[in-house]
Amino acid sequence: MKQRLSPDLFHLPVEQIKNGFFSDSYFLRTQEILVKDHHHPRVLMQVFQRQNAVVCGLDEAIAIIKKCAHDPDSLVIHALYDGDQVEPWETVLTIEGDLANFSHLETVYLGSLSRQSKIATNVRRVVQAANGKPVLFFPSRFDHYAVQAADGYAAHIGGVFGVSTPANGSIWGAEALGTIPHALISAYAGDTVRATKAFDAHTDRRIGRVALVDFSNDCVATALAVAREMGDTLSAVRLDTADTLIDASVLPYMGTFKPTGVCPQLVINVRQALDREGFNHVKIMVSGGFNVERIKQFEATNVPVDVYAVGSSLFNDNINFTADVVMVDGKPGGKVGRMYRPNPRLSLVK
User: Parallel, antiparallel, or unpaired: how do β-strands 236-239 and 42-48 relate?
Assistant: First the structure.
């Protein structure tokens, strides 16, 4: 049975939302006019978007309504569940009651739905492209820190294996994952082996030992050096070669493919080198510019990747939600082209 998150899990600035701080001004004026004119029709607000998508942000939208409407107990809410696959124009949420009670919330709940559905949809597409291999959610450095908790929850709904910040996992109770940054290797004078050994010596044993091996632009040599030093303790190596560089091990193969960045030949070279020396247990994680199309290409040609770490592409595109009043006092009341679209999949929110 599907469950909803408690509204209390969302750290909402309730008073600011109630006061309209985050609302488009015309929604505030609508509320003011209705109150001053003593005009309180009972409306049905209908919410939809225009793509095939994974809907997410509904639980936060519900929390916004329940905590920030002026009289939430008088409202009737029906909604799908976070993670439901939706079609264009499908109704995902309805709110029924006095418009003056919740007009100020439209900007806020639509924003939550739009952002979280975008991320959940993008993650779901990447996860499907990865054919069951773990996908890590690593884009938090590319946006404002305040959105990390909601983004991480949306990524979880999309099917991501792990996230990179504590905030990302805070709503769904996940611990942050992470490897070694280039900065740590720099701090050890570019010595990847030394940096990895320091990581191993001072990091919780529950955390997998994953070495970042592109610092010197010779992933094969660095991966072997770390594996020889770490032995069975090393769980994986991460390849993160910049798209402007050609790894030393790829140079002899140039001529028939794009050789820059983390290309298939680089992954193959590292896998073969590790296997030749008996390090078959060491997995290969790739990062740096991966998206759905690139992952599909890797999977179609059986590139020996074990884990995909995906960043900024998970923030691409937009999924825009719209809210319309479609019924007024039990009668059709929407603008031309926006009729009531009942959806039997909606459930009453209690």
Answer: unpaired
d(CA 59, CA 208): 33
Same domain, 290 and 270: yes
Q: Which two tokens stand for residue 343?
A: 């959806």
Taking a C-beta distance cutoff of 8 angstroms, is the pair 47, 323 a contact?
A: yes
pLDDT over 90 (residue 256): no
Nearest to 40 by CA among 97, 113, 125: 97
Assigned domain for 330 exists: yes
pLDDT, one tens digit per residue, over 157-199 is 999 999 999 999 999 999 998 889 999 999 999 999 999 999 9
Reduced to 3 states, what is the DSSP secondary structure of residue 48?
Answer: strand
Rounded distance between C-alpha atoms, residue 11 and residue 188, angstroms: 39
pLDDT at 179: 85
- CA 57 – CA 169 distance, rounded (Å): 15
Q: Which domain holds residue 279?
A: 130-315
> Are the C-beta atoms of 82 and 55 separated by less than 8 Å?
yes
CA distance 282 to 148: 31
DSSP for 328-346, written as a single string: ETTEE-SPTT------TT-
pLDDT value at 1 more than 90: no
The answer to whether the CB of 199 falls within 8 A of the CB of 192 is: no
Q: At 105, is the pLDDT very low, low, confident or very high (cuts 50, 70, 90)?
A: very high
Pair of tokens at residue 148: 């990390």
User: How far is it, in rounded angstroms, from Cα 323 to Cα 95?
Assistant: 10
Query: How many domains are contained in the chain?
Result: 2
Query: Does residue 186 sit in the same domain as residue 328?
Result: no
d(CA 28, CA 63): 20
The DSSP element (H or E) to which 45 belongs, if any, is: strand 42-48
Burial bucket for residue 81 (CB in 10 Å: 0-12, 13-18, 19+): middle
* Amino acid letter, 293: E
Instruction: Match 């505030």 to its residue by tokens.
Output: 28
Q: What is the pLDDT of residues 48-61, one digit of tens each?
A: 999 999 999 999 99
d(CA 175, CA 203): 14
